[in-house]
Write a structure and sequence with these properties.
The protein is mainly α. The protein has three domains: 41 residues; 45 residues, no CATH class; 39 residues. 78% of the residues lie in helices and 0% in strands. Helix 1 packs across helix 2. The chain is flat. The mean pLDDT is 88. Its main location: mitochondrion. It is found in: Mitochondrion inner membrane. Keywords: Membrane, Mitochondrion, Mitochondrion inner membrane, Transmembrane, Transmembrane helix.
Length: 132
């Protein structure tokens, strides 16, 4: 059924709390990675990707904080998210949005594989015709 307005507000506050907590944790880990970089150590590919994602999240946090700090501006947040879907830091994404992105990526990969399979089959036909 439908949830009450109070319950939805509590759920949103929990979502923001968890998002900020995850972002804080990512920031601490990224700071350690930067410290390691400054002392001459090399990061793995996975660490480098995490560092870049965290830096991007911190830059995305600035416009997001405007919506959180300015009173009643959070009501405009869905409109801006529709216009700028990558505005939220990655730690604030919901599970459904994450699954939707994964489905889109998977569909794109399937289409690419289908295209490549058709291309290879067509090239095989041409080679067969040329040699036959």
């Amino acid at each position: 059924g439908k949830t009450s307005l109070r319950q939805r507000a509590v759920d949103e506050l929990k979502h923001y709390y968890n998002g900020f907590h995850l972002l804080w944790t990512d920031t601490k880990v990224a700071a350690r990675m930067v410290w390691r970089l400054l002392h001459g150590q090399v990061l793995t590919r996975r660490e480098r990707r995490r560092l870049l994602r965290t830096c991007a999240d911190l830059f995305r946090l600035v416009p997001f904080l405007v919506f959180v700090i300015v009173p009643f501006m959070e009501f405009l947040l869905p409109v801006f998210l529709k216009l700028f879907p990558q505005m939220l830091p990655s730690t604030f994404e919901t599970e459904s949005k994450r699954e939707e992105k994964l489905k889109k990526k998977l569909n794109a990969k399937l289409e690419l594989a289908k295209f490549l399979r058709e291309t290879i089959a067509e090239m095989a036909k041409r080679n067969k015709a040329d040699t036959g």
